[in-house]
Amino acid sequence: MILFTILSFTFLVGFLVIRVLSNNFLRGKLKFSEFENNHSFLSDFGLIRLDSDKRKFILKRLKGEIDGVDFSNVKGLYYEIDNSGAALLVLSVGSVLDEYEWHVISLVTQDNKRIPIYIIGRYIPKGILMFVINFQKYILDSMGLIKDIQLECHAQLDKIILSFKQAGLDIKLC
């Protein structure tokens, strides 16, 4: 009986550690900096620069590719909740019952091309032992270790809109 209790406790602690690590989200990097007439931020997609002199949005991707869009060609920002990439992630790290949710902010051009500039995702467990998962979630929530990614994404969206306004483009959601 003692061995069963020790193994159960070890399993619970190990699963809590995995939950904490999985709740640190997938991606979600966005760091802002301001220079004289350039407002820039670094995201998971690369370095984004808003040049108020040239009135241009410039994205230098991590692979070295550069996308440039004139402010006059910007239609707005698009915010979406997407789980289309979940199937590939499920095959690599999870079960078929689990879900993955992505919150994406993209720049939309006049010809409706979307250029993603921010993404944050989370793992949503589903399965047979949901009472255990819900109990662990309750513990992690009470410890402040689980963030609300929708609130996080909306906060970053507000910062992105403010950066565009400071660069001279009054951008809206479309």
Short description:
With 174 residues, the chain is α+β, with helices and mostly antiparallel strands.
> Helix coverage percent of residues?
25-40%
Assembly annotation = single chain
Could you give the distance between the termini?
60 Å
- Secondary-structure-derived class: alpha+beta
Shape assignment: elongated
SS element count, helices: 4
Largest β sheet strand count, sense and barrel closure:
5 strands, antiparallel
| Strand adjacency order, main sheet | 2-3-4-5-6
Strand content: 35-45%
SSE arrangement, N to C: HEEEEEEEHEEHH
Mean pLDDT: 76
Low-confidence stretches: 88-94
Q: What is the radius of gyration?
A: 20 Å
| DSSP summary, beta strand count | 9
Describe the protein's architecture and organization:
The protein has helices spanning 2-22, 86-93, 130-142, 149-166, and strands at residues 26-27, 30-34, 38-43, 46-51, 56-61, 66-70, 74-82, 99-109, 114-124. The chain is elongated. The protein is 34% helix and 35% strand. By secondary structure, it is α+β, with helices and mostly antiparallel strands. The strands form two sheets. The chain has a five-stranded antiparallel sheet, with helices on one face. The model is unreliable at 88-94 (pLDDT under 50). It has a domain at 2-25 and 74-166.
